[in-house]
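Please, structure for the following, as tokens.
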Amino acid sequence: MALCPDLFWRQEPGIQLNDKIQKDWDRAFELYQGFDVDKGIDDIQTALSWLRKADGSNGKAGVIGYCLGGFLAYLSACRTDTDAAVGYYGVSIDSKLDEADTIKGHLLLHVATEDEFVDKAAQQAMHNALDNHPRITLHDYEGMNHAFARPGGTHYDEKAAKKANDRTLEFLKTRLG
């Protein structure tokens, strides 16, 4: 079962944006700049708690996120009771690497090596801090840019997306199954 919480409900409930429209792209960055990460993590914990009690649940719950959501997936692994977290090309993870020791579940990160929003220094810092963590797996996607797994996106790459999605599915089956 899947749940997609509206994490922007405090700013603009129910907002729908199209990345192919400049006005929407600009609005997305405004929302990103005003997003309260700590409250967002609280909302994710609430969603995880609800999922665990939902009819048909096996009591385990995880999170998946892309871009800002990839950062939130990382922080969810650090700050919530999630069993499994998956982050695709998460931004700003390098700013919170000191929280990795608090991870109790498991974390899978997909890193685009040519990410226009996560530079090489940030990627290296992530690898330096996380590669030897027993609960974290990082996969690099050589030559891939941000949003390589988003169908219809500018940088979509079918082969890399399939590889990342297959890895995600196997990870979730193992951790949540």
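Residues 17 and 24 are 5 Å apart (CA to CA). The chain has a mean pLDDT of 96.
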